[in-house]
Amino acid sequence: MARANKSIYSALAANLLIAVTKFIAGAFTNSSSMIAEGIHSTVDTSNQLLLLYGLKKSVKPPDKYRPFGYGKELYFWSFIVSIMIFGLGGVVSISQGITHMRHPETLVNPGWNYAVLALSFVFEGASLVVAIKEFDKTRKGLPWWKAIIKSKDPSGFLVLFEDGAAVLGLLIVFVLMVLSHNLNMPFLDGLASVLVGILLIFVSFILARESRSLLMGEGLTPETQQKLKVLVEADEDVIALKSLLSTYQSPKEVLLLMILTFQADLTTEDLTNAIDRLRDKIKHEYDIIKFVIIQPQSVNIPERDQSEDIYIL
User: Fold this and answer.
1) 32 near 24, Cβ under 8 Å?
2) Is the per-residue pLDDT at 310 higher than 60?
């Protein structure tokens, strides 16, 4: 979380400074693409604030209303951020770009725009470098895209995508602004705004997909589930793992539910000791699993009549 905070704070500082300068430059030069970039930076600033709020809420301790904690607050606010990127970033930029393509205005004093773009590229580039370095520390040798898909901390890859989209958007605006100025084709400035909007919508769909999956209850990978199956079935008192359910409560907390078939001759004390032993093995092997719920099932009891008792450890 601390690493994610570092990249969020760096992105927040960069976007706040850049948004102001972009709006000033856009007002002086009648550039729709620069105004679109200002909107983009404003949305990004708001997004970082929402992520910080989500991170703060997610570390609240469990209470009687949320017995498993508030970890999913982070997933909720990450999903809200993806919606904001789509609506306030993408749709507004496209709408403004289409308007300026239909009614193009000649750029005035384009030097302002070039100066702001250069400054923005430095700040956004520095923020992107920080985000890349911080995310690189968490991917554990995995390829970048696979690490993003497997990541359960949206605050890390969300900032990475935002900064990457910001840098790419600046390059699009710069190229089309140069062409618009030198070829006297002012409609290209509006086209740049549309392209930036399309880029933001594309990014918003990727982020929404990942955040939605976590918010809806994404669980442990099939590989990890198979390892857990081998671990529990290696115990002398366990016959078989009948069912395994899991869900991420936060990037560092997993809720695990298992239905196990135990040996028929176990006493109540033997059963309790076996459950304690399995709990310790699982938590020792996987420190991310914070909640373990085990429902025992005797080998001689048909599945339809199995005990409804659930042991919460």
Assistant:
1) no
2) no
Name the CATH topology of 2-215: Alpha-lytic protease prodomain-like (1.20.1510)
Domain ranges (residues) in the chain: 2-215, 222-312
Q: Model-level pTM?
A: 0.74
Indicate whether 301 pLDDT > 80. Answer: no
CATH topology of domain 222-312: Alpha-Beta Plaits (3.30.70)
Task: Give the tens place of pLDDT for each residue, 194-243.
Answer: 898 898 898 888 888 888 888 888 889 899 999 999 999 999 999 999 99
Nearest C-alpha neighbor of 36 from the set 101, 102, 89: 89
Cα-based distances in Å from 51 to 40, 60, 79, 89, 132? 16, 15, 10, 17, 18
Stretch (H or E) spanning 116? helix 110-136
- For the chain, the residue count is 313
> What does 140-184 look like in DSSP terms, one character per residue?
TT--HHHHHHH---HHHHHHHHHHHHHHHHHHHHHHHHHHHHHTT
- Per residue in 245-263, pLDDT (tens digit) is 999 988 889 999 999 999 8
Looking up tokens 């609240």, which residue turns up?
Answer: 60
- Rounded mean pLDDT of 41-68? 85
* Separation CA 235–CA 271 (nearest Å): 12
In contact, 97 and 32? CB cutoff 8 Å: yes
What are residue 238's phi and psi, to 5 degrees? -105, 130
Distance CA 226, CA 61 (A): 31
Taking alpha carbons only, the member of 22, 44, 217 closest to residue 116 is 22
First to last CA, the chain: 26
What pLDDT shows up at residue 99?
A: 84
Same fold? 2-215, 222-312: no
